[in-house]
Structures are given as C-alpha cells and as structure tokens.
Amino acid sequence: MRLPLFMLLLALPLAANGLDDLRAALAKLPGGDPVKATLEHSFWRQIVDDKKPTITQGKVSAHVEDGPQGLRVTWARPALQQAAKELAVQEREPEHPTPTRTALKNLDPLETAEALNHAEALLRDLSLAQLQEERSEAWQGRPARLLVLKLDPILPPGQRKYLKELKVDAKLWVGPDGLPLAFTTAVALKGSRMFITFEAGNTQERLFARVGGRLVVTRNTTEDRTAGLGASNQTKKITTLTVL
Q1: What CA–CA distance (Å, rounded) separates 29 from 43?
Q2: How many CB atoms lie within 10 A of CB 6?
C-alpha cells in the first residue's frame, strides 16, 4: 500500500538548527570534574542625584575550587581586613564608601558555582529562546556560527503591568565543537507608575571555555542603568575566572 505524500513527509525527521544543536551539546556535558581557578571581581558605580555624580569602585580576588566536596571560596586576609575597616569608618561616617565590602557582597556563591559549571544554567536561559537568524561570523578571530535569538522574559504580572516598552536582543556565538564561545544580551525598558516615568537597561556578555566536562564562564561583564525622578544609577561589574 502506498502512503500519501503528506504522511511520508510527516514521518521524516525535522531538520535541526543551530539552537537545537547547541542545546543537545550542552545537555551532553557531564560536569562534575574537579576544577580550580582564581576569581577576580571589580565594580564601578555612578549615582547622579541633583546633577551631582558620586562614583564608587572596588576590586577583590579569591581562590575557588569546585568538585565532589562542593564549592570552596578562599578570600585573601587583606581583603577581609579592609572590609572590616571600611565598616568601622562607615559606622562613624554614614556617607563613607565601602568599596571592598561592596565588592565582596556582589559575589553570590550560587552564581559562582554556576559560573564554574554553566551548562545547565545556560540551558535554562535558552529554554524559551527562538532562533531568528543563523550565519557564519567569527568571534575574536575564531571561526564561529552566530545565532541571533528572540527572548521573551517571563515577568510577574505585578511588574509587567507597569511596562510600556520592553526590548531584548540576544546573540550567541558557537564554536566548531558545537559549544558556545560568547553570549551577549541587551535589555531596554520604559514604564510608568503613579504618573512617574522610568527607564532601565541591562547589558551582559559572557565568555566561555570548556574545562573537562564543564562549561566555565571565564568572563562575565554586566552593566545596569536606571533613570527616573531626576536621578540616575549606572553600575558595571566584571568577574573573571582563570582556570589553574
């Protein structure tokens, strides 16, 4: 018996695209291999209120290990001593900056663990992504495929109702081994609440490397900005992991 042509077409496998291939490659990374690295984190923050800018910046470093025993982070003693001194001064002078203490607080242990073993976290980020364009485009001189993605962030109804405009751009470069080299996102939003308008934005760039069965974020750069009520806030954070 001959089957109708449309039934034969339904039986054929759908052609995979670059995004499907990337998801499959990430799912195959076993993770779990012990890894050691040096971590460096820096931040820069500018707050402008009444046209008066206030700038704060700080930097810290640590030694990190991840393996069967879990995550271990070792802070240098001078950094901890400096953070304690900053707090002591701030208790007497509330306006005194605490750059080292702020830099230490910026580093979330869960985010550090994910940076050292990032395949699962990246799969979550890509779970609702849609591929808009795919083409050959080198990344920093290395051969790669560029995936231009559409992302639609899931926001609580209580937040989304105040938004008037939300735009998200995402690009991901994939190397010849099928694993990501870099992922950039840019978010811009405008909204209003109680007759007060506001604007905000975020850009992020993550660079990756395969270490054994892990996908490691070797450099994560984020920049946040907000503006409203005559004031603005801009923060840039850079975290690098150098595998030992």
Answers
A1: 31
A2: 8
